[in-house]
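Recap quiz, item 2
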Amino acid sequence: MSVANQRKLIFRLGGIGFLLDLIEVVEALDQIGETLDPARSDIGQGIVSALRFRQTWIPVVDPALKLDISSTVKLRDKTVVVLRGAEGNWALLVDQIDGLFTAENFQPCEIPFLLKVATMGFYSQIQLLHNEPMIVFEPEHYYGSVSISA
Amino acid sequence: MRRFGLFQIGGFGFALVLKRIKKILQNSKTYGLPHLPGVVTAVLVDDGELVPLLDLSPVIGSGSRLNDDVPGYQVLVESQYGSIALAVDLAGKIVSEQKGELSVTVEQTMDYGVAGKFIYQDKEYKLLDVDFLAIEMTQGFLAKPA
């Protein structure tokens, strides 16, 4: 197993922690204000802007819209995490990145029966990092053919 | 001999059957999660498990106090659907049934989630139906308080 596969990137939206397998990540960028074009949006698909990345434009998806999370961080102060997808690179808009952690820092944690119905379709796994719940981010729910048909 | 845990939130006194109480935590850290159901305002982590924290304000009949940032306690209760946590102001006391006067409500029409009342030292404590509250308050039948 590669080192990247064993490491997780932790990011936050509205104070809530999320984890992402590093293997999915192309690059993380801050100070994105000059590289965004909000005119190229498709809110119906969660795309809030386009990002100039490596001589091309890629879609920027704000997962806070689907998750109904309110954030106080302004767009220009946000960070993007560029992910590789089946249809090419795309960018995830997040409030901040906490850092990288190895897999052994995490403890599996089942979503209780009483919460399962309401959270279904939004997230299905949680892991604990230092006893704090981290939502396992499932990129396919946010961009690509699966998210569009959902 | 049945025993009850007696608690208070605001001016509202409530009773829980003691054998349903797992533990009482003080100022336990709580975490918001997206799309929490019904009147679940947050979760807390206990022994590696997530426990939904319920806002009792629909039962109390007052506005939510869970965002008041007032130090308090959380009572972890075992329901037949899993553990839930209830926020309370004061650490409770434990009394046996004989020390007070218990009357059981047959229908739920008057007080939502209340199975009866227990009067102890002239104060009334509403006996909560933990199973009813757990399922009703988490499956979206009750709206989140504003």
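The mean pLDDT of chain B is 84.
The first strand of chain B starts at residue 3 and ends at 9.
End of item.
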